Amino acid sequence: MKPVALDELIVENHQVDAAALCIKSGNAVLLRGGSEAARSNAALGVVLREGLVEAGLPAEAVQIVPAGDREAIRALVGLSGLIDLVIPRGGEGLVRFVTEHARVPVIQHYQGVCHLYADEGADHDLSVNLVVDGKTVRPGVCNALECLLVHEKEATKLLPKVAAMAKDKGVELRGCPRTVAIIASAVPAAASDFGHEFLEKILAVKVVDSLDEALAHVQKFGSGHTEAICTASYDRAQRWLREVDASCVLVNASTRFNDGGELGLGAEIGISTSKLHAFGPMGIESLTSKKWIVYGEGQVRG
To answer: What's the domain range around 53?
Structure first.
């Protein structure tokens, strides 16, 4: 078994989930958490190794790597031939550092710039509820909503409802000029607000002329993570599903459903926004590889 290296895991359940997934899929794993949780990670490591021994498995299959500086990470991700795969979990800077210096494959997850498009004819209450769940419940997670796109024919009635919700939930709205003309409390959006992962109670808002413009915006500013449409049109929903390039595309559902547990994978080890070898939430199958087995009776190729 070769190890899979991970970085900056959140203690909660991630370290245990990652170890369980790796062991169940036949992998050893190196777990390197952040310095802020060093003692908790070490304690969990002891428990995990004791459990492995009780199950008749080698304790060395799960190893806790002490937190260190970026040079330690550089050395770890350069262990070609010893490590099969690196899965960095943390900020964009960490992921880019690992990707730039790794000599082994890396599962990339730079940002979660997730959009919701409220289509022409969309149910306004449903649209607002999707914004509430996507933006306010856990604004600091990668599948949180970061930008709301609204069809121009719905803007004058839908945006005041969004504004009322934002005031009640403490959400700052940063809008395009057409949005600001409707919502006086909205802050004029800077160009950098579109395509930005806020990870807090800030939501970019843009009024668009059509589904075509919404698709073009997502193509330009999306991060390949999660994109949702709120619509009553089957045809436009199907077009959204076909044309949006993201690891999870939703119709009339919150962006926060892009999660291994919610999608039936059980535990997840991360969400990939690259396409080699996984795309989207990674469960146990994403930690396995294919091996060809051939039974013969003396066949030769010739």
So the answer is: 3-106+265-287
Residue 2's pLDDT is: 54
CA distances from residue 200 to 118, 138, 144 in whole angstroms, order as listed: 21, 8, 9
- Whole-angstrom Cα distance, residue 42 to residue 64? 7
Q: Quick: pLDDT tens for 138-164.
A: 999 999 999 999 999 999 999 999 999
Single-letter amino acid code for the residue at 227: E
Q: What is d(CA 103, CA 130) in angstroms, rounded to the nearest whole number?
A: 41
Which CATH number goes with the domain that contains 242? Answer: 3.40.309.10
- Chain centre distance of CA 2: 25
**Pair (95, 151) in one structural domain:** no
As given in the structure block, the two tokens for residue 246 are 């993201």
Cis upstream peptide for 225 (omega within 30°): no
Q: Write down the pLDDT at residue 93.
A: 86
**Distance (Å, whole) CA 174 – CA 160:** 14
CB 44 within 8 A of CB 33: no
Q: Which residue has the tokens 């607000």?
A: 193
Same domain, residue pair 136 and 231:
yes
How far, in Å, CA of 115 to CA of 113, rounded?
7
| Residues 38-48, mean pLDDT to the nearest whole number | 90
The answer to whether residues 108 and 77 touch, using CB atoms and an 8 Å cutoff, is no
Token pair for 42:
């070490």
CA distances from 283 to 20, 142, 224 (A): 11, 17, 18
Do 274 and 185 sit in the same domain of this protein? no
Angstrom CA distances, 51 to 87, 158, 300, stand at: 24, 54, 47
For the segment 220-271, what is each residue's pLDDT rounded down to a tens digit? Answer: 999 999 999 999 999 999 999 999 999 999 999 999 999 999 999 988 998 9
